[in-house]
Amino acid sequence: MYRSLGCTVVEMLSGKPPWHKLEGASVIYYIGKTNKPTYELPDDVSSASKAFIECCFKHDPSSRPSADDLLRDDPFICDASTLRDNVRL
Q1: What domain range is 7 assigned to?
Q2: What is the CATH number of the domain that holds 31?
């Protein structure tokens, strides 16, 4: 689940999914064989965003924060909540 979330955030920020340079079945091979996906982020992505993504891609589940911890304490999520409260729709 965490990897999926991290991949989604990477794609939302960069417009490209992780491993976007690979084709077809080779993506499946790399997902299973590597601990961390390869991806590129724009230069203006915040350090909080990068740290959040890194948390999502930690291979060892015991070293990742829980969903509750992320929602309560992570600067990327907290910044987004503040932004949402200040944006008129």
Answers
A1: 2-86
A2: 1.10.510.10
pLDDT digit string (tens) for the chain, length 89 residues: 667 888 898 999 999 988 888 887 887 777 777 767 888 899 988 888 888 888 888 878 888 878 777 777 667 766 655 545 544 44
Q: Are 31 and 19 in contact (CB under 8 A)?
A: yes
What are the residues whose beta carbons fall under 8 Å from the beta carbon of 52, sequence distance 6 or more?
A: 9, 70, 74, 75, 76, 77
Q: Give the chain's domain count.
A: 1
